[in-house]
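Input/output pair, single chain:
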Amino acid sequence: MWPLKNALQYKHRAMVANEKKPPKPLKVNSVTGWDVGPDEIKANQKEDDSLKKYWDLVGKPVVVGKPQFFLKKGILYRKYSGKKDTDEKIQLVVPTKLRQKSGLISTRHSVSWSQRTVIF
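Output:
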C-alpha cells in the first residue's frame, strides 16, 4: 500500500457548488409575543416556589420510567423517556409567572424548540 498523503481528493460539481453556498439557517419554532431571554427564565425559575420540588430532584439518581430533572446553563429542564428507549424528550420547565405570557398555555401542545418542548 502507498501512503495516504499521496492520495488525491476528488470533489464532484455538486460538492464544489455546496461549498460556495452559505449555510442554511436553522428552522426554530417560536411563540409570537413570548420574547423571553435565558436570564429571565433562570430568575423566574429560581423565584417560583412551585418548582422547588423539581430543583430538589436535580442530580438525583435516575429511576426507570420517572422523569429526570437537570440543569443546562443554569436553566431547569426535564428529561423523560417513554416506554420505548427512543422516545426521549427534553422539556423546558416554565415558571408560573411566564406561563400566562402571551397565551402560551393555549399553544402549549404546538410549542417546540428543536427537540425541546414546554411543560407546566
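Residues 30-119 form one domain. The CA atoms of residues 58 and 69 lie 5 Å apart.
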